[in-house]
Amino acid sequence: MIKTLAVIGVGLIGGSFSRALKAAGAVQRVIGFDLDSENLTEALQLGVVDEIAADYASAVSSADLVFLAVPVRAMTAAVAACAPYLPAGCVVTDGGSVKEELVAACEPLMPEGCHFVGGHPIAGTEHSGAKASFATLFQGRRCILTPTSRTDQQALELVQRLWEAAGSRVECMEPLTHDRVFAAVSHLPHMVAYALVHAVDRSAEEEENILAFSAGGFRDFTRIASSDPSMWRDIALMNRLPLLAVLDRYQQEFAALKEKVAVGDGAWLENYFTTSKRLRDEII
Amino acid sequence: MIKTLAVIGVGLIGGSFSRALKAAGAVQRVIGFDLDSENLTEALQLGVVDEIAADYASAVSSADLVFLAVPVRAMTAAVAACAPYLPAGCVVTDGGSVKEELVAACEPLMPEGCHFVGGHPIAGTEHSGAKASFATLFQGRRCILTPTSRTDQQALELVQRLWEAAGSRVECMEPLTHDRVFAAVSHLPHMVAYALVHAVDRSAEEEENILAFSAGGFRDFTRIASSDPSMWRDIALMNRLPLLAVLDRYQQEFAALKEKVAVGDGAWLENYFTTSKRLRDEII
Prior knowledge:
Two copies of one chain form a homodimer. By secondary structure, the first copy, chain A, is of the alpha/beta class. The first copy, chain A, contains eleven helices and nine strands. Chain A has helices at 12-23, 37-45, 56-60, 72-82, 100-106, 153-165, 175-206, 217-221, 229-238, 240-263, 266-283; strands spanning 2-8, 27-33, 51-52, 65-68, 91-94, 115-117, 119-121, 142-145, 169-172. In chain A, strands 3-2-1-4-5-6 form a six-stranded parallel beta sheet, with helices on both faces. In chain A, strands 7-8-9 form a three-stranded mixed beta sheet, covered by helices on one side. The two termini of chain A are 36 Å apart. Chains A, B: Keywords: Amino-acid biosynthesis, Aromatic amino acid biosynthesis, NAD, Oxidoreductase, Tyrosine biosynthesis. Chains A, B: Residues 3-284 form the Prephenate/arogenate dehydrogenase domain. Chains A, B: Belongs to the prephenate/arogenate dehydrogenase family.
């Protein structure tokens, strides 16, 4: 499908994309670049990529497709660093988990004849780095692509076919729609869990037995509060407005629930919990 | 250890207690009573209990120990219904998940020579009824007993030995301490999850794609929002003040987090998420 793929950021996502496309025979040669030279060397040694580059210029100058999988806060700068060296016809796509701000910043950076396509593979593990990558990470998982009115149709189709070759089901969505959806189903639950761990810890200051009993249900519920802090800082900063909208909605729901606990309104509470159960069972 | 055990409420908890003690050879004969006669018949057919009683009086009148495992809202009334028929020396204990209000109500109901010991086995499954019970439910799980200044020491020791025979690790705690601990580590997470499901559902009214993407992380996080609504109504009503204290603490944490998202304070957010991760990893 393509001759040369450049992967910028050869971590779990970038490395797995490379492995998946190599395994599918969808690419002839993969060049990797990573600011972490130790990780990059490991990527080469493990065969995650075929070659490694010393800088952005040599990484992308012969690429048909550039896949950027660096932290979201670094994405625009990485695209800007690649842009001057992109060969004509090159397609650039990313794996960032926030899209509106990023797509708006990256599209105008493309030189004439090069095309940007925003993307977000819905996949991951608790591990990171090239050594954590594996060819089947995207198998059966969704990948959201976020074309805009400026997106080149052939570039979009190429990126879609590559994600499909990696095993993903591709869906297209406007960048802002993507951000609103993930604010609700992913970013909000993370914020809720982060606040919960803090609230339980503050309670533990008043009652020493609390920590000893915090295992069990609390364990599963707060797993997401162990997610990478700098990644979630970036998501909170870059998806600020959609996130604020759902934080606000959550605050209203919580305040209403607390008020009904305060007045002891059993009928309301049972109805609220019944609806929660029905909604949750419908969603899953 | 005892000759006759009466189990009032032969569901998952009551039935499993009976099975566990029979399996351990800690009881000679178990009499069951349940307001749900279909469930009670099934308990007999499945051998969960040895005999079934037609009313509270015949269930408890020959019992050395009475174990009540009815919904918490019905517990005090069930203890009151048994009290006139308790033989001298009988020990009464319960499995209710809220303790302060219940222990305070049940202790004075005991006739002369009979003793109440509050308890809360930390075990359960998503299923209910006698057919869901099994002998190893309490194996390796904690059981909290909540003695007070009025508790008879021999009665406490008997109840402790029985739970140990059922495979549990027994810990004693004041009733109010119990309620504060579980408000923080169990009741608060449930309220947080119930509100989350509602907030996501409200978001879905504005953005149709949301429900389609609600699986994955959201699934684990909201499992507890599928818990039995009437049980959680009762817990919210009966543990009102300790629950309000932690709901309040949570509301403060969430408001602080939202404010920092609103102003885009990346350093604060990263620090908050880092602390969450550390606290959570310490707790688990």
